[in-house]
Design a protein that fits this description.
- The structure is a single chain.
- The protein is α/β, with parallel strands linked by helices.
- The chain has 8 helices and 12 strands.
- The strands form 3 sheets. A 5-stranded parallel beta sheet has the order 2-1-3-4-5, sandwiched between helices. A 4-stranded antiparallel beta sheet has the order 6-7-8-9, covered by helices on one side. Strands 10-12-11 form a 3-stranded antiparallel beta sheet.
Length: 226
């Protein structure tokens, strides 16, 4: 997706933009309300990630209200430190489609962005994931490779699901800790390496080619090539 990120906090902006680019999205950025409105009104975006509190004489609420008055229906996700119920309600009433409060886990932000993207395209929820001869049925909670059923433990299932949802992209240790183990810190253990090793034994061993690859100094990637 082509995404506009309007965020004045340089660290947050850099963190979010880097993660979204690594996930395959194209990002434009603005650090104040006026520049954000100019880009939002003059370019075609699939989604806007918008901070509530912005410099430049125009906050996020006013930006969105002005944008909606032009007839724009682009999905907008508020990303804000304003976490009270009234703040969230104001954001949604102004025309926001979702509201995520800071601090946040990047994996949740990415999941919400992708959900809004699917909704905008009129797509239903994903119930099946696949790559090459590997298939995962999310409803039946089953996995097959080359027609052979593979029994996985719940944590292994979650790990493989996350890899499948991000197939062809590098999945970092931090992303796995947040998405699969619900850790928002690094416990400094080899828990990820152990589980990936076990998953490899079940997914790759005895088949024509491996799917789970280690990307040195980065993480892991599910892909079909060597």
């Amino acid at each position: 997706m082509r995404i506009l990120l309007v965020e004045d906090d340089k660290d947050v902006s850099r963190f979010v933009a880097k993660g979204l680019k690594e996930s395959g999205h194209v990002i434009d950025q603005a650090d104040n309300g006026r520049d954000g409105l100019f880009l939002a009104a003059s370019e075609n975006y699939d989604l806007i990630v918008l901070d509530r509190m912005l410099p430049g004489g125009m906050d996020g609420l006013r930006l969105l209200e002005t944008l909606r008055a032009t007839g724009s229906k682009v999905p907008v996700l508020f990303l804000s430190a304003l976490a009270q119920v009234d703040d969230r309600v104001k954001g949604l009433k102004a025309g926001g489609d979702d509201y995520l409060t800071k601090p946040f886990a990047f994996t949740e932000l990415l999941a919400r962005i992708e959900a809004l993207g699917r909704r905008a395209r009129g797509e239903g929820p994903v119930t099946r994931l696949a790559i090459a001869d590997l298939e995962m049925d999310l409803l039946a909670r089953s996995v097959k490779r080359a027609g052979r059923t593979i029994e996985l433990q719940p944590r292994e299932f979650r790990l493989l699901e996350f890899l499948l949802r991000n197939a062809g992209q590098v999945v970092t240790r931090t992303m796995l800790l947040e998405a699969v183990w619900d850790y928002h810190f690094d416990p400094q253990t080899n828990v990820i390496d152990v589980h990936v090793s076990r998953l490899r034994q079940k997914i790759d061993r005895g088949f024509a080619f491996p799917l789970i690859h280690t990307v040195r100094n980065a993480g892991y990637m599910l892909r079909t090539d060597q």
